[in-house]
Design brief:
heterodimer, A: 293 residues, alpha/beta, Rossmann fold, 2 domains, six-stranded mixed β-sheet, four-stranded antiparallel β-sheet, B: 266 residues, mainly alpha, two-stranded antiparallel sheet, 11 helices, disordered N terminus
């Protein structure tokens, strides 16, 4: 079932001199089985938005409905169950590791859910497989002696092991190298395709979102400035720039070329499509095709 | 989670009190605390409480914010009051089985509770109107004469200011880790004391690891920028006693003496 947000507002420290309205009147739906990107400048309310989805924060006005249940009515174990369903991976999750053994750290979530040790073992095995962590090699190692890339994978495995239906990630690619980013995005795609996990990614990097997402939500100053398909949002170059976001270099280039060749579609998402666009638009210009130049 | 304002957090403002030299406010606070603790008569207490409320009014910060700060100490205040009320022997007011309340206990309990409230009010008067850095500067200046007898005033101030600087970061970090562990199904709300203690290690361990990393990074960054202790350091904002400070200090001293005199002779 989808996640519905109805006119959601959230204020930090209400009625104090430090009062700060982070979200103001957000209404949207996160559909089952989609990969959706959330973007916007710093302080636009993206992280607050994520925390509202798994009940860490409760809206000060409006409603968040997950699987037919309104989050603000949940208490105690019901909240824990919500967090099993809606997994949230914070920024720099490697900082949250605390157990001595890698296995125990990944098993923390499943054990909190009260699963049998047998089921916990299977969940950990599955999560480690998903992240390419060899069980025999890693499960008994100390979490603190791993490299930071390995730590992040262990932390991600810790969230995956709870087998969430929805996976929310806050800036998951921050601080990763190009290869690490590719691996992570591939993992999200696989989770989505093979396990029907709904994935919500918060990121500043539009190229990362463009690579995996079907839809985008653009936040600005606590409100939804834009939403739609990735191509649809990329069509609003000026609006994005106003918000302080930069299109992926590919689309920047296409927008520049469009100034000369208006028939170019600057919202395509892959290198191949972009090459196609450029080729098609300049065919006439080069009189016969680029091969002759 | 730490959502309420942290007790004693600086509330930026433009009031007369905000503009005072931190040393003035420190000394004023100490003077008023002494007066309240020495006051033994109803008159003396009433007068000093009046003066404190006047000072609070001068800060331009609503009283409700002061009271919110006190609210988090209500249990301490109630226990203090209770101890005096039930345990001080004297002329009995109420006697029921083993419960015994004396007139002396009631007055002493009330007095202690009032003193606690006043001390909290004064502490907030100081920290609401003085940024932590100004406060540290003030302490350093006040302690600097002790340099000659080997008290490392600058180093002490530096340690304090770093500690202060890191408190909010520490809290934010703790908050972040709590949220992360709650997202992994840690339950800090249900269960008994023992079952609630267990997930606590999942917060404390990463918090300490991070704190040590931070301390290392900071030491390195300070060294990289050539930090080498107090000798010959200048500062960005020199603090200076002005006419307003002298006015406050002299008035404060006179009021304090006045209250003492009234107490002794009236």
């Amino acid at each position: 079932m989808p996640i519905y947000l109805k006119n959601v507002c959230f204020t930090y420290q209400p009625d104090s001199p430090f009062q700060n309205q982070a979200l103001n009147g957000i209404s949207c739906t996160i559909h089952d089985g989609e990969i959706i990107g959330v973007t916007g400048p710093t302080g636009a309310g993206k992280s607050t938005f994520l925390q509202l989805l798994n009940g860490i924060l409760k809206p000060t006005a409006g409603e968040v409905e997950v699987d037919g249940v309104v989050t603000s009515q949940l208490k105690g174990r019901a909240l824990v169950n919500l967090r099993q369903k809606v997994g949230l991976v914070f920024q720099f999750p490697e900082d949250q590791l605390f157990e001595v053994r890698v296995f125990d750290d990944i098993a923390f979530g499943p054990r909190n859910l009260g699963w049998s040790e047998d089921k916990v073992k299977r969940a950990v095995q599955w999560a480690m497989d998903m992240l390419g962590l060899d069980k025999d090699e890693f499960q008994d190692r100390s979490t603190q002696e791993l490299s930071s890339g390995q730590k992040r994978r262990v932390a991600l495995a810790g969230s995956l092991a709870m087998r969430p239906n929805y996976l929310l990630l806050d800036e998951p690619t921050a601080g990763l190298d190009a290869y690490g980013r590719q691996l992570l995005l591939a993992l999200l795609r696989k989770l989505n395709r093979e396990y029907r996990t709904t994935v919500v990614i918060v990121s500043h990097r539009l190229e990362d979102l463009a690579a995996v997402c079907q839809r985008l939500l653009v936040f600005q100053a606590g409100q939804l400035a834009l939403q739609g398909t990735v191509s649809g949002v990329f069509g609003h170059q000026e609006a994005l720039q106003e918000v302080g976001l930069q299109l992926p270099p590919l689309n920047e280039l296409l927008w520049k070329l469009k100034a000369y060749r208006p028939e170019i579609d600057p919202t395509v998402l892959t290198l191949e499509e972009a090459a196609g666009e450029i080729e098609r638009a300049f065919e006439v210009y080069f009189q016969g095709g680029p091969e002759d130049v | 989670m730490f959502e309420g304002a942290i007790i004693g957090q600086y509330v930026p403002g433009e009031s007369m009190v905000h503009r005072l030299d931190p040393r003035t406010k420190l000394i004023l606070t100490i003077i008023m605390m002494t007066v309240v603790f020495m006051a033994s008569s109803g008159w003396g207490l009433a007068l000093s409480v009046g003066v404190i409320f006047f000072l609070i009014w001068l800060t331009g910060i609503p009283l409700s914010i002061y009271l919110r700060g006190i609210r988090s100490f209500r249990i301490l205040i109630i226990i203090t009051f209770g101890f005096q009320l039930f345990l001080v022997p004297g002329e009995p007011l109420l006697q029921w089985n083993f419960i015994h309340i004396s007139r002396e206990g009631l007055t002493l309990g009330g007095l202690m509770a009032l003193r606690l409230v006043v001390v909290l009010l004064l502490a907030q008067f100081l920290t609401f109107t003085t940024s932590p850095m100004a406060l540290i500067d003030g302490i350093e200046k006040l302690l600097s004469p002790l340099n000659k007898v080997g008290v490392p005033a600058h180093e002490m101030a530096m340690v304090m200011s770093i500690a202060l600087r890191f408190i909010p970061i520490f809290f934010m970090e703790a908050d972040r880790i709590i949220r992360a562990q709650v997202s992994r199904g840690a339950d800090f709300e249900s269960g008994n004391v023992i079952t609630r203690l267990k997930p606590l290690t999942s917060i404390i361990a990463p918090l300490f690891i991070k704190a040590f990393q931070r301390a290392d990074d900071l030491a390195l960054a300070m060294e990289a920028r050539g930090y080498q202790g107090g000798e010959g350091r200048t500062r960005l904002r020199e603090i200076r006693l002005r006419r307003l400070d002298l006015l406050f200090l002299s008035t404060g001293l006179m009021v304090a003496l006045g209250i003492r005199l009234i107490e002794v002779y009236v």
